[in-house]
Each structure stands twice: as structure tokens, then as C-alpha cells.
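Good morning,

Both structures are done.
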Amino acid sequence: QVQLQESGPGLVKPSQTLSLSCTVTGGSITTKYYAWSWIRQPPGKGLEWMGVIAYDGSTYYSPSLKSRTSISRDTSKNQFSLQLSSVIPEDTAVYYCARDLAGKGVVTLFDYWGQGTQVTVSS
């Protein structure tokens, strides 16, 4: 059974960088041909896909967030991470990590999700 767990600070100040990690157990992030996505849900809004890192380390980002988003991985810890720079209050959301079967950010093709972590952007 694959399990994902997000971790990171729950409060970030405006203009700073939001950093979250997702630890995967029950499966390797380097297993062909899986990919691993970050998704967020602002209060009262729908899910927004942010970006993905594939089994081979290649990355792809949502065009709307590409300039501020970076996804990386630590294969020794079986973790992948999200960095979102220059955050604003509108970046307040529940952030999720998920396994992406197609590597294209299609939410219906995510089969395992983390429980989500609330991140608030406020001074």
C-alpha cells in the first residue's frame, strides 16, 4: 500500500518561499513509469495542479505557476519536495501530494494522495 505524507511549516510570511516535502512509503519514487504531483486547494475553491516530477527526475509545471515553482526529489529519503517562491496571501491553501499515473497533472489519474497540509500565508 502506497502512502504519502506532506510535511512543512503551516505559516509562511508574504514574499518568502513556501517549502513542503512529501514522504512516500510502500513504493519507490523512481519506479517506472510513475510520477508524483503537487496539488493545492485554496479555501472555497477547486483543486489546482501545480507540477509533477517523474520517476526519472524530469519535471513539468503548471504554466500559471511555473515562474515561482520548483519540484525536486531526494531518492535516498524517497521524498519529493515543493518550493513556491514569493508567496502572497492568495497562496493560502491545503497542499497535497499525490501519485500521478499519467504524469500529466490530470486529477482523475491520481491514485494515491497524502492527507494534505494547511499552509497559510500571512504576516
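Second structure follows.
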Amino acid sequence: QVQLVESGGGLVQPGGSLRLSCAASGFTSDYYAIAWFRQAPGKEREGVSCISSSDDMTYYADSVKGRFTISRDNAKNTVYLQMNSLKAEDTALYYCAAGPRAGSYDYWGQGTQVTVSS
């Protein structure tokens, strides 16, 4: 059974850091492009970052560039999103998705909540 499980969310103060994890099971994640999305209440879903399957090229939304870093650990079948210098506007439900190529995602996780507040 294919499954993506996110973890690592929580409450953090502005300027703080969190590392989100996306653990894959039922398939080998290094053969897939993995992306992180987020959705805040009342807002549309936003693509945050993705990492390609073949050459680990990465993409970041302008809103997170320089603050977030995506990486993968193939041995653990897990993709991470390191989030630094967090801002209140980063508050959202974050979830990961996997697919054969960037922009084409077949599998989705349930999400982990990130709240940035003092």
C-alpha cells in the first residue's frame, strides 16, 4: 500500500526553525519527484518546494527561497523540508506529494500543521 506520512510540524516562534519529514512506504521514493505544498485557511494551495527523481534538482517558491531547504535520504525513503527563519505567513497545513516527475503527482499525504506565532 502506497503511503506518504508527514511529521515534524508544530508551534514555533517567528524566526524559529522546523524540519518536516515525508516518509514514503509502498514505493521507492528516490524514483519519484517529491514536492511539498501548503495551504492556509482561506487561501489556495501553494507549491513550496520539490526535488526531482533523476538528478535531485530542487525548486523553491519565491516566498521561501533562501529559508527552506528540501533534501532526501534514500536509505530512509524520506524527504525532508528544513524551514528556517519562519514567519507568521508560513503558518499552514503542509503536505507532501509524490509522482513520476515534477508537477505530476499521484500520491498525497495527509499533512502536518505548522503554526508560527509568538
